[in-house]
Amino acid sequence: MPVPGLRFPTEVIWMAQEALQLLVSMHRIVRHLRRSRTTTLLHPTQFLALMLIADEQPIRIGEIAARVPCSQPTATTTVAGLEEAGLVRREPDPVDGRATAVVLTEAGAETVEASGRQAAEELANLLSRLDDADRALVLQAGAVLMRVTDDL
Question: Which parts of the sequence belong to the HTH marR-type domain (predicted)?
């Protein structure tokens, strides 16, 4: 099946190879950032859920499960752990008072801010290995990748 905008099979093969290289590189960077993170007390699923809650609050547990992604029981357990740690709290959903939504506590907001700052500093350290032109290219790609992920 032809890919729109690509004329030759070799272009499709090249794009797939480049996409795979990008995927592997992004995975390695994220893994490095997770390992170097100062908030190692959080499981990766808790960390992802906490970042999602920070961006989307108030948010229902079902939406957390869909967006992390994980199962509904895992999302419930994850939120319970974050709640026990004092990072989030449940409150009545503003749209449907019968349901509950999850929001950050002050401690949760501080954790998100500290984690984001630490990850940004560590990524800046990685990017400092590049020359100015390559660093600018990577940072410009960040804006493009945000558009790709906006609706994920």
Answer: 19-152
Q: How does DSSP classify residue 93? A: -
What are the pLDDT digits (tens) for 81-106?
A: 999 999 999 999 988 888 899 999 99
Check: CB of residue 59 under 8 Å from CB of residue 102: yes
Q: How many CA atoms, within 13 angstroms, populate the side-chain half-sphere of residue 117?
A: 6
Alpha-carbon torsion angle 97, 98, 102, 104, nearest 10: 40
Residue 44 vs residues 36, 49, 62, 101: alpha-carbon distances, Å: 12, 9, 18, 21
Contact indicator for 105, 88 with CB cutoff of 8 Å: yes
pTM of the model: 0.73
